[in-house]
Amino acid sequence: MPSPKPGPCTILAIDPGETTGIAVLSLNPRWLRGVGAPTWEGLGSAVISRYAVQVGRDPKTFDTGIGKTAKSTNELLEAHHLPVMGSQPLEDEPDFDARFFAILRDEWAASGGDLTMLDANEIRQLRQIQGLLEIYPKAALVVESFQLRQMSQDPVLLSPERMRFAITSNEVLHGSVGRLPVLQSSSYAMTTATDERLNRARLYMPGMKHATDAMRHATTFARDCRKDEATRARAFPRHFKVKESS
Questions:
Q1: pLDDT at position 1, please?
Q2: Average pLDDT, the chain
Q3: Above 80 in pLDDT, residue 172?
Q4: What is the mean pLDDT of residues 121-148?
Q5: Helix, strand, coil % over all residues of the chain, rounded to 5
Q6: Predicted confidence band at 209 (pLDDT cuts at 50, 70, 90)?
């Protein structure tokens, strides 16, 4: 009996921080192999599906049908967009969930060893992201790397690096076997996938800065996969192999 075709190649890209942008881009493997135009319009025509969301302090969704951004809440995201989360209690302790969400609503006077709003926001984001990763176990994972460009004692400043480390650690310990995140610099993605180029690929999302930045990473990595067969094979081993030289 022939093996079933492996389906599209999916890239899940994350721009982590106090608000985290997530983009899921599924592409026709033929385009990644080099079939079709290498242009941004060609990339756009190879898109099978796309999904974008922001979680954390500024939760939003993007309606691909009408091409518009909509404000949301983390509760709505978890109910309709991240269904894995609904079956994962935070803690067995009876009142932990209530205290946790009270902190997020700024209704809990944290002190001593209790969580702060910053801690709770990042923990909730990590759970949301892990839920999405479980939905896409075969997707290539791309995470923006972090470079400190200013000196500050504001704990929010290092939120991207804390989130990156938490996502990586959780994926290594509990995620898909063999999947390691590809780290990609923000400057590389910004100069490669400009607003104008994303527009040409029909992948620009106005009003969703962080999700758009995640889409920059997804499309930049897709182009790298098209250019390099080793990168392509590592990202999608079910679809591609590195050709052995004779």
A1: 37
A2: 83
A3: yes
A4: 86
A5: 45, 15, 40
A6: very high
* Euclidean distance between CA atoms 19 and 198, whole angstroms: 21
Q: Domain 9-90+126-235 carries which CATH code?
A: 3.30.420.10
Residues pairing with 63 in the sheet: 68
Hey, what are 76's tokens? 């709505």
Q: Under a CB-based contact definition with an 8 Å cutoff, are residues 208 and 52 in contact?
A: yes
Least confident of 33-42, 59-68, 230-239: 59-68
**Can you list the positions of beta strands (E) in the chain?**
9-15, 19-27, 47-56, 60-63, 68-71, 140-144, 182-184
Beta strand pairing call for 60-63 and 47-56: antiparallel
Q: What confidence score (pLDDT) does residue 2 get?
A: 43
Beta bridge partners of 142: 13, 182
Domain locations along the chain: 9-90+126-235
Residue showing tokens 């209704």: 107
The DSSP line for 152-204 is ---GGGGHHHHHHHHHHHHHHHHSSTT--PEEE-HHHHHHHS-HHHHHHTT--
* Count, residues in the chain: 246
User: What are the residues whose beta carbons fall under 8 Å from the beta carbon of 97, sequence distance 6 or more?
Assistant: 89, 90, 91
Residue whose token pair is 């404000």: 71
Quote the CA–CA distance of 10 and 238 in Å, as a whole number.
Answer: 12
pTM: 0.83
